[in-house]
Amino acid sequence: DTGVSQDPRHKITKRGQNVTFRCDPISEHNRLYWYRQTLGQGPEFLTYFQNEAQLEKSRLLSDRFSAERPKGSFSTLEIQRTEQGDSAMYLCASSTLAGVYEQFFGPGTRLTVL
Amino acid sequence: KQEVTQIPAALSVPEGENLVLNCSFTDSAIYNLQWFRQDPGKGLTSLLLIQSSQREQTSGRLNASLDKSSGRSTLYIAASQPGDSATYLCAVALMDSSYKLIFGSGTRLLVRP
Fold this sequence. Notes:
The structure holds 2 protein chains of 2 kinds.
Chain A: E1 5-7, E2 10-13, E3 19-24, E4 31-37, E5 44-50, E6 53-57, E7 65-68, E8 75-79, E9 88-95, E10 104-105, E11 109-113
Parallel strand pairs in A: 2-11
Antiparallel strand pairs in A: 1-3, 3-8, 4-5, 4-9, 5-6, 7-8, 9-10, 9-11
Chain B: E1 4-7, E2 10-14, E3 19-25, E4 30-38, E5 44-51, E6 56-59, E7 62-67, E8 72-77, E9 86-94, E10 101-103, E11 107-112
Parallel strand pairs in B: 2-11
Antiparallel strand pairs in B: 1-3, 3-8, 4-5, 4-9, 6-7, 7-8, 9-10, 9-11
């Protein structure tokens, strides 16, 4: 069990550029969640997958955001035409479909939009 | 709409003190409650998970309690150490098919040597 990994750990981009983040969940975890955390706040839910199906998207996820989990394993989160307000920590978590549904978090990707 | 509040927002204590962090939530229909630790610029480390049917969980110097009917949870840290300095986040899992977490804003703890 290597834990949840995220790549890159840090991303600096200019406003208007597209960025993509990757999350690798704990193997055999069916559920994968994305959260966004701004400075001084708790994380906020963005979206989640069960296997390859995206089952819910928050209203925070504007049409500039898209997430995929093509084979039910890793997931990508893409932000198109980044804005300064997109600067945040993007956190990924995974859990099993049984038991207590405990979520395990990755180290996050810190995005800075200049 | 579920809302989670944590009090205090910040806390500074001398080493060795026992302390209590508070978490309250507005809707008692939760699946579980998790306490996390977050170091600056890092991800979240799960500390304790309490299922909705449980009243408390313990791990080492940490004890978390849950009173679902009143919408409250506490995290008790015994004999605090400088290494405990971090932000502590409380989150409730919604009782729907998503089990997504709703977080409080956290308590920033500083334990002074």
